[in-house]
Amino acid sequence: MPTPFIQDNDRYRVDHMIEFCEKLAELANSISEEILEDDWVYTFAVMQLYEMLGEAASKVSSELKIKYDEIPWRDITDLRNRLIHGYDDTEHHLLWLAMENDVPPLLEQLYHVRKDFEANPSV
Fold first, then answer.
1. How far apart are CA 30 and CA 92, in angstroms?
2. Phi, psi values for residue 87, rounded to 5°
3. For residues 73 and 60, is the Cβ–Cβ distance under 8 A?
4. What backbone torsions phi and psi does residue 18 show, to the nearest 5 degrees?
5. What is the CB neighbour count within 10 angstroms for residue 38?
6. What is the largest CA-CA distance in the chain?
7. b/e map of 14-35 (b: 16 or more CB within 10 Å)?
8. HEC string of the chain?
9. Do residues 20 and 45 make contact, with C-beta atoms less than 8 angstroms apart?
10. How far from the centroid of its chain's Cα atoms is residue 101's Cα?
11. pTM more than 0.85
12. What does each of the 123 residues of the chain score in pLDDT, given as a tens digit?
């Protein structure tokens, strides 16, 4: 039986999700909505972070998603899909609202998951 890669581990995915959310929160605190809309570098950075967040969420196990069903797993992956497949019709205002309103509580939920991993190293 092959040894599983660390990338196949839920802890690894959650840690990445935390990293991406922290970067989104940092951007939300350092730029304005107008800058997000007007500066293609920030726009691409935010879109890429959301895409990677959604990709990591899509690879979290079903068991973890069921255990933490308060986390909007489907919404996260749906946003990723929307950005990748609807790249030409992105509403910057909605990205900004998500950065301000959705990312902070998601980050707190993910910190809780990581804390549970740390309390139970065998998971």
1. 16
2. -55, -25
3. yes
4. -60, -45
5. 12
6. 53
7. bbbbbebbebbbebbeebeeee
8. CCCCCHHHCHHHHHHHHHHHHHHHHHHHHHCCHHHHHHCHHHHHHHHHHHHHHHHHHHCCCHHHHHHCCCCCHHHHHHHHHHHHHCHHHCCHHHHHHHHHHHHHHHHHHHHHHHHHHHHCCCC
9. no
10. 13
11. yes
12. 445 555 469 999 999 999 999 999 999 999 999 999 999 999 999 999 999 999 999 999 999 999 999 999 999 999 999 998 987 778 889 999 999 999 999 999 999 999 999 998 765
Residues 6+ away with beta carbon under 8 Å from 10: 60, 61, 64, 117, 123
Q: Which two tokens stand for residue 48?
A: 């890429």
Residue 40 corresponds to which tokens in the numbers above?
């293609």
Q: How far is CA 13 from the centre of its chain?
A: 10
